[in-house]
Amino acid sequence: MNLPTLLFRNRLGLYLVLCLGISLASCGDPSDISDELLDGKVIFDPSIMAPENYLTSLSNPNPTPEEASRPVFILCHGYSASTFEWSEFIAWSGNTEAYYTSSVLLGGHGRTYEEFKSNSWQDWQWAIFDEYEALLDAGYTNINLVGSSTGGALILEAISSGYFKGKTAPKHIFMVDPIVLPSDKILPLIGVLGPLIGYTEAENTNGEKSYWYTYIPQKTLQELQKVIKKVRLDLQKGINLPSQTSLNVYKSTHDSSADPASAVLIYKGVSPSNQVSIKMIDSELHVFTRLNYRIESVSAQDRTNQEQTFQDIVEIALHH
């Protein structure tokens, strides 16, 4: 389970707070966070302790000219998640020498509840920029961005704000279930409802509890709403891709977190259209490329969707 799905599963409680004006037990912050949770003070994203195992800029800071020309995938996870979200792609890639992966931990994520709560969406995004610029400084020339869920929204915002102007632009951008429009329309009300509840609790599986936050501060939900609202407005105005950059979007058709209409908004709002590809995937999962520790049953079709998408991403990066 990941966000924003968990917010929507608590919408009945939110409506009761709004309508009845009562205080829930979840007002403020959680009083006792177990050390078995990512939210606690014991479990951290492993990339914090050993970043050289996750970031190509650290594992190979002095590439040869041939190495510098290989594709590097900067993998950007979603809101409330961690580097684990793209671990299956890294495992699938094995020990390949055809390309590199850089698994970025978004700012404020993978740490304690308090640290997560205190970071803005701009802080989340800067982690992507840090690795991008480190790769450029090291001489890498074939950089590709891969974003899931909110990771996709953060990449779109970077394009619209002109971050890549004056820099070597990414060769390809890949997005899996980017969230531009939430499936449940309660999220835009978080500015009103959030202060009444303080935080909400995710229905994570036992496996997910080490890699996704269980307690979600309402402040961070407000930050999520801010960035996806900004991206929607930017898409309405029009977002122009760098001239040599392709955008490839893979969108689940029955996504309970990111409305499938997000893909339509991206297609209509990003230009030039001949650099944009949208593939609708027959799936009921949000971030359908992540299958481990799901509460949902994982079908043979889910595994096929994952495999085909991984193959497509690598094929495009290596041969286009």
Q: How many domains, in number, for the residues?
A: 1
Which regions contain 5 or more consecutive residues with pLDDT less than 50? 8-26
Q: Can you write the helix and strand succession as a string?
A: HHHHHEHEHHEHEHEEHEEHEEH
Terminal-residue CA separation: 34 Å
Please state the structural category. alpha/beta
Q: Helix proportion of residues, in percent?
A: 25-40%
Counting DSSP E segments of at least 2 residues, the number of strands comes to 10
Number of helices: 13
Task: Describe the overall structure.
The chain is α/β, with parallel strands linked by helices. The protein has one domain: Rossmann fold (3-Layer(aba) Sandwich). The chain contains 13 helices and ten strands. The strands form three sheets. A six-stranded parallel β-sheet has the order 2-1-3-4-8-10, with helices on both faces. About 6% of the residues have low confidence. InterPro entries: AB_hydrolase_fold. Keywords: Signal. It comes from Algoriphagus aquimarinus. This is Esterase.
SSE topology:
Layout: H1 5-9, H2 11-20, H3 46-49, H4 56-59, H5 65-68, E1 72-76, H6 87-93, E2 100-104, H7 113-118, H8 121-138, E3 143-148, H9 150-160, E4 172-176, H10 190-197, E5 199-201, E6 215-217, H11 218-237, E7 239-240, E8 246-252, H12 261-269, E9 270-271, E10 276-281, H13 300-319
Parallel strand pairs: 1-2, 1-3, 3-4, 4-8, 7-9, 8-10
Antiparallel strand pairs: 5-6
Helix pairs in contact: 2-10, 9-11, 10-11, 11-12
